Amino acid sequence: MAKKLRKSNQERKEGKQTELEQIQALNTRIEEWDIKPNSSMTLQAKNFRDLPLSSNIIKGLSDNGFTKMTAIQQHSIPVSLQNWDIMASAQTGSGKTLAFLIPILEKLYKLQWSEYDGLGALVISPTRELAMQTYEVLLKIGKKYNLAAGLVIGGKDLKFEVERIYKMNILVCTPGRLLQHMDQSAGFDVSNLQMLVLDEADRCLDMGFKKSLDAIISNLPSERQTLLFSATQSQSLESLARLSLTNYKTVEDPTLRNIVSSIKDKDNKTTTPATLQQSYVTVTLPKKLDMLYSFMKTHLKTKMIVFMSSSKQVHFVYETLRKLQPGISLLHLHGRQKQTYRTDVLDKFSKSQHAILFATDVVARGIDFPAVDWVIQVDCPEDVDTYIHRAGRSARNGKNGKNLLILTPSEEEGMLKRLANRDIEPKKLNIKESKMRSITNNLQSLLFQDPELKYLAQKAFISYVKSIYIQKDKEVFKFDELPSEEFAQSLGLPGAPKIKFKGMKSFEKAKELKNTSRQLLLLKNADENGDILTKKDKQVKTKIDKMFERKNQTVLSEHYLNLTQPASKKSADKADGEDEDEEDDFMTVKRKDHELIEEDLPELLIPTSKRAQKKALSKKQILLNQGSSKKLIFDDEGNAKPAYEVLGEEEFAKDGDLETQLEKYINKENENMKLADADDKQLVKAKKLEKKRKRQEKERMETESGYYSKENAEEEEVEDYDEDEIRYVAGTGDLDEDMVSEDESEKRPRKKVKYSRTDDSDSENVSENNVIQVENPETLEDLESLTAKLLQG
């Protein structure tokens, strides 16, 4: 077969011209599209094929099962294709990701974007998990485009990203890592950016990224298209829209509100999907874990997400319930885990058919888990928006789902009132006491056996109490009504740990400091004259210094610091006015570092040869050189101490100086050891003699009774004993003659002992062998004859 030849320049030009004509036709259709909310064109477009989209995106969508559009996609994509800025809001799980990825791909395709044009589109997500999910969808639907896409999030290799980020055409990222690349990556250029997307923008603001977003937007070109997507709307979101959007349109899910052309109406309400069954139960705080465990045991064939307020609670509940073995796969996810582990957990839970995921609000926004049956909100959400996003992990894309909110009696009235203001009215469920199972005793047993679990329980208790303390809505979260002792006992603790509260100002200050720019921090570190301190003016920390200051990753890291922290630093902290809670310390070591003066030290003989050095460093040789240890005396408390410390210097000096008493003590101990050795040898020798005597008596008795036959006697030999034992030579009947010493036994050859029996044929050879052989006497005459023979012999 002939090889397929490459396209000629003429064919390439024709193909290019055809593609440009197709793009021109698409632009004409887009300009003719009526984007009004109730227009016939918008209402009749049900599938992606009905929109003015290129064949590349239609092919990518159909290959991945995307054919029909959701409501937000139906109304927002045509507006985006006409290059309008958009602020869109819709229900959770309504398909907002495709609503902004399709316009990105289409715009870069129509501009004939290439690798030489640089970065064309930027997607900013609040969490790493949401950014990874968006990136995966982008790779699936954009495989027909000749564009380079990249994922830039925290927890990844920064050097790897720096080497490749300047080649990217589409970038999906988190705010913190993007701002870091803007500051540090020399080849990262955003001057040619065409489109900016802020996904879950309200969450970015809630997480404290407002200053980061302001810094990012200030570095981007003003002539760009901006798409702002969120499930809820707030005043902070409106202020961000005014800063980043120009000539924009507000797009909402038409099931909630018709599309409007401005943002003047501030009564926006976002509800949950109609396919979501919402309910709530009221239990006391100490009964929450019992309620959760009982619910899990009755729903083992489901897939559910359990939301809690802090990572320490998630960690504790996961570790304890995992040991109780409820009969279903358990997973946990929170922000303190490493990125690789978080990615693995997301993948496992997405692929599982029946599993329970304990998580914080890190997965409450935008993450699309397939087929989640139940969402359990163990801890009350901080506001209605958080409730909506949590519940939105179920009943996605028109599927059915269930949400259960667990409230305490003090939270019930306030939270239900706020939900009703947003047209959310969950149904109340009653708990059957017969179905409730208490795990308090099990938790107490686990905490008693495992100190790390007890430590986790203490941290979980403290984190929950602090989370209630810092809540702004005091009508819902009533700190004064917390049953602290009962709640601590429900976690398996013997009592409630003590908690130090820093106050609301310190929390807000820490949150601001976390997101403060480096330039402002440098200004704060300036001296009195206003000069910024350089690295030379202050102590510079190297990589090695940071390595030694790094904490352990185990749960006992704080206790480890208490063990290793020098006493001098603790005393300095006390001098600065810092309070120390002695009961929180696991163990304290008082250590003093003494300065050594070289002149006062004795001269040391340094071994010259390697063999001598090795011998000097040998632990065994060191112990031999040291000899016996110092004389120790136990005090009243049972502690071993040197004799001169217990007796006192004067009483100790009566018996002589230290060297004299030590030499006397060693000599005495050596004599005692020699006496003990002699006694031990005598005892061993006596045991051996007794053992041999019993054996000889047994063999003599067997010989006299004729136990051995002639054949067996000729084959059997006397057992050979060790040289340390006394040998049995012959049975003469006299014990003193039968027992010989070791020296005599060595001179005598070992003999075989043979036994013979009475035989009529050999009765005449009595005198030769000195053995009298007779028949068994039957009469009195036979006895007299036998007696006469014995007397003659």
Descriptive account of the structure:
This protein is an alpha/beta fold. The chain folds into 5 domains: 22-252, Rossmann fold, CATH 3.40.50.300; 276-438, Rossmann fold (3-Layer(aba) Sandwich); 541-588, no CATH class; 637-757, no CATH class; 760-792, no CATH class. It contains 34 helices and 16 strands. The chain has a 7-stranded parallel β-sheet. Strands 10-11-9-12-13-8-14 form a 7-stranded parallel β-sheet. α7 links the parallel β3 (149-152) and β4. α13 (311-324) packs antiparallel against α18 (451-469).
**CATH level 3 topology of the largest domain:** Rossmann fold
Q: How many β strands by DSSP? A: 16
Strand content: 5-15%
Radius of gyration equals: 46 Å
Alpha-beta classification: alpha/beta
State the CATH superfamily name of the largest domain. P-loop containing nucleotide triphosphate hydrolases
Number of contiguous helices? 34
Total discrete domains: 5
**Cα distance, first to last residue?**
125 Å
Fraction of residues in H or I helices: 40-55%
Strand order of the largest sheet: 3-4-2-5-6-1-7
pLDDT under 50 segments (min length 5)?
A: 1-5, 255-269, 570-589, 707-769
Largest sheet: 7 strands, parallel
CATH architecture of the largest domain: 3-Layer(aba) Sandwich
- Supply the CATH class of the largest domain: Alpha Beta
Mean of residue pLDDT? Answer: 75
CA-based shape? elongated
Layout: helices, strands, pairs:
Layout lengths: L8 H24 L7 H5 L10 H9 L7 H11 L3 E5 L6 H15 L10 E4 L3 H14 L7 E4 L5 H7 L5 E4 L1 H10 L10 E5 L1 H6 L3 H10 L5 E6 L4 H10 L3 E5 L23 E7 L5 H10 L5 E5 L3 H14 L4 E5 L5 H13 L3 E5 L14 E4 L6 H8 L9 E7 L1 H12 L6 E2 L11 H10 L1 H19 L14 H7 L13 H11 L3 H7 L18 H7 L7 H8 L2 H9 L34 H8 L1 H8 L5 E3 L5 E3 H5 L1 H5 L4 H47 L5 H6 L19 H4 L3 H6 L18 H4 L10 H13 L1
Parallel strand pairs: 1-6, 1-7, 2-4, 2-5, 3-4, 5-6, 8-13, 8-14, 9-11, 9-12, 10-11, 12-13
Antiparallel strand pairs: 15-16
Helix pairs in contact: 4-5, 5-6, 8-10, 13-18, 17-18
